[in-house]
Amino acid sequence: MPEESKKIDLSGDGGVLKEILHEGTGTETPHNGCTVSLHYTGRLEDGTEFDSSVSRNEPFEFPLGKGNVIKAFDMGVATMKVGERCFLTCAPNYAYGAAGSPPAIPPDATLIFELEMLGWKGEDLSPNQDGSIVRTILETSDKKRSPSDGAFVKAHISGAIEGRVFEERDVEFDYGEGSAIGVIEGVEIALEKMNIGETSRLTIRAKYAFGDKGNEEFKIPPNAVVVYTVKLVDCGKGIEEWKLSDAERLDEAKAYKEKGTNYFKKENWALAIKMYNKCKNLLPNTADTNEEVKKVKVATHSNIALCHQKCNDHFEAKQECNAVLALDANNVKALYRRGQCNLTINELDDALEDFQKVIQLEPANKAASNHVLICKQKIKESKNKEKKLYANMFTKLAANDKEVEETS
Cis peptide leading into 30, omega within 30 of 0? Predict the structure, then answer.
């Protein structure tokens, strides 16, 4: 058994004691969320072995700090370096308590584990848990504030590829709008999980970095994995929507609508859509009774439709036009834009109907009149094409019938 004087009290009450048998390498230790890999052998105080990954020749893996193991394991393993071996003495209240774990572990048992840290993988922060954004915390923080949607963010970022640093700078932006100043999506997603004062290393795959195009300025090839070191210096507090009155929701929605328009003017269609969607989602559900809310909602759907048109996403644009017309059946802009979408996706009869409705509402609308002519011409061409197709089909069928008659 290890000597008492060499033990380190990890719990502060003598409940979890650690003695290092072999020092590990480096300075890093795993953090909550990491998947650690280690070998262990567990014994009772009398030396009886009750479990061992070594005898199975199968390393034990678990996510640190998630409560998947006994408390003492989470506490002890978090202090270990790669290659370190130690004894961990665990009082019952940090192990299996009064219940024990029959039949191997009796009630109120003190356990002694011999641990060997093999290594760990960073925490997977990617939305689909596919390893696209992996975090390793380099410097922890006891501050609990993290960025949320719309909150002010101040951070220091340093991006590298294969050891070459391609950018290092201080950044300030509203969370959700990082792309406006060139902050890649993977960094912004990770920032939401970070606390003020924390420094983390992020390994980010191309889908959340520079994609299949790479970045010519930074000399980053297509589909490249990049590594960012990020320190969250400060952040504000985001909007707590549930606390807002209807009047406050409307004011916040208008602010996002204005942001969307500013990004639209800069031809940043993706961020414009993002801001307009925030506006739409913030609006109170009073469009049926509140004319101002209805007006903002109509304008927002209409603006999103225009953004989608700019991106050549005509199906999405059409859906936004439908949303406008559900609120205002005679909205000329929405009818005209939906007509354009229908024309582009070759829904010619629907397009013609939309443009004709525009002319009913605005007889002097020359653009709609021109589009009516275009629709009619395309419909005519489509019908002629169908006639020729069927004529050729019948000719071939007749020829086949004749051939059968001649050879029978």
Answer: no
Contact between residue 293 and residue 286 where contact means Cβ atoms under 8 Å apart: yes
* Alpha-carbon gap, residue 320 to 231, rounded angstroms: 39
Decide if 86 contacts 19 (C-beta within 8 A).
yes
Cα-Cα-Cα-Cα dihedral sign, residues 19, 24, 29, 30? negative
Q: What are phi and psi of 101, to 5 degrees?
A: -145, 75
108-119 pLDDT tens trace: 999 999 999 999
Name the amino acid, one letter, at 249: R
CA separation for the pair 303, 306 (Å, rounded): 5
pTM above 0.90, yes or no: no
115 strand-pairing partners: 40, 86
Q: What tens digit of pLDDT does each residue of 259-299 get?
A: 999 999 999 999 999 999 999 999 999 988 999 999 999 99
> Which residues are known to be catalytic?
40, 50-51, 70, 96, 113
Residue 21's φ and ψ, nearest 5 degrees, are: -95, -35
Identity (one letter) of the amino acid at 333?
A: K
